[in-house]
């Protein structure tokens, strides 16, 4: 399927924005990320936009697209640093790109926050709709959260344009590992100390593997 065909798909009236900015984002991410991450990020946009429509939220689809497409750029060799979490590296890459395209600073700040917080549970849903919806899209595609809220037709239409690999759960775990293994600070675990003997740290990989997705 050609890139042009990918960009024309509509799911419940949701399309990838056709602005020059969105087209350049698509080209950059497609050329920088693996096919796995590119299609994952594209699906995140659709899941997030559909969630926004279902919740009757007002949001800028172009900013949602920017946040979704850049959210894993910090896992790539081209945009990783030796000292920041991968979320911050991705947020910085988006900031620099949007700034070079003359995007308003308030919108840049929103996209930066989207990406920086997308692995931090419990906070994004209380913030700007774009912040909340990118996180919702990530949680749907990786963790299967709210899986039942999307129809079979919606899932099939999105997969037709942006396929999910046969072993996506293991593939995305490997992508996270490969993108963070060289720097412990790049891991996305959000933790806090606790003195409770009942505390048990969650296992991110186990959550992925036990999700509602078949693979």
Fold topology:
Elements: H1 3-8, H2 20-32, H3 35-54, H4 61-70, H5 86-100, H6 105-116, H7 129-143, H8 152-161, H9 168-180, H10 204-209
Strand content: under 5%
Q: Biggest β-sheet, characterized?
A: none
Count of alpha/pi helices: 10
Mean pLDDT: 90
Structure in words:
With 215 residues, the protein is mainly α. Helices cover 56% and strands 0% of the residues. The chain contains ten helices and no strands. It has helices spanning 3-8, 20-32, 35-54, 61-70, 86-100, 105-116, 129-143, 152-161, 168-180, 204-209. Residues 1-7 and 189-201 have low confidence and may be disordered.
Summarize the structure.
With 215 residues, the protein is an all-alpha fold. It is 56% helix and 0% strand. The longest helix is centred in the N-terminal third of the chain and has 20 residues, at 35-54.
Search tags:
single chain, mainly alpha, 215 residues, disordered N terminus, 56% helix
């Amino acid at each position: 399927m050609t890139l042009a065909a990918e960009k024309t798909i509509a799911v419940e009236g949701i399309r990838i924005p056709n602005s020059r900015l969105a087209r350049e984002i698509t080209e950059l991410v497609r050329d920088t990320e693996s096919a796995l991450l590119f299609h994952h990020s594209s699906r995140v946009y659709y899941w997030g936009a559909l969630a926004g429509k279902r919740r009757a939220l007002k949001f800028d689809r172009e900013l949602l697209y920017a946040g979704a497409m850049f959210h894993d750029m910090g896992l790539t060799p081209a945009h990783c640093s030796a000292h920041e979490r991968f979320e911050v590296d991705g947020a910085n890459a988006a900031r620099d790109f949007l700034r070079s395209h003359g995007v308003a600073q308030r919108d840049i700040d929103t996209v930066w926050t989207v990406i920086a917080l997308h692995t931090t549970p419990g906070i994004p849903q209380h913030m700007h709709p774009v912040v909340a919806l990118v996180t919702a899209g990530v949680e749907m595609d990786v963790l299967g959260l709210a899986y039942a809220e999307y129809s079979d037709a919606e899932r099939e239409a999105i997969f037709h344009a942006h396929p999910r690999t046969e072993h996506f759960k293991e593939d995305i775990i490997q992508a996270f590992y490969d993108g963070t293994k060289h720097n412990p600070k790049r891991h996305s675990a959000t933790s806090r100390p606790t003195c409770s003997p009942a505390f048990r740290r969650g296992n991110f990989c186990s959550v992925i593997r036990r999700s509602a997705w078949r693979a």
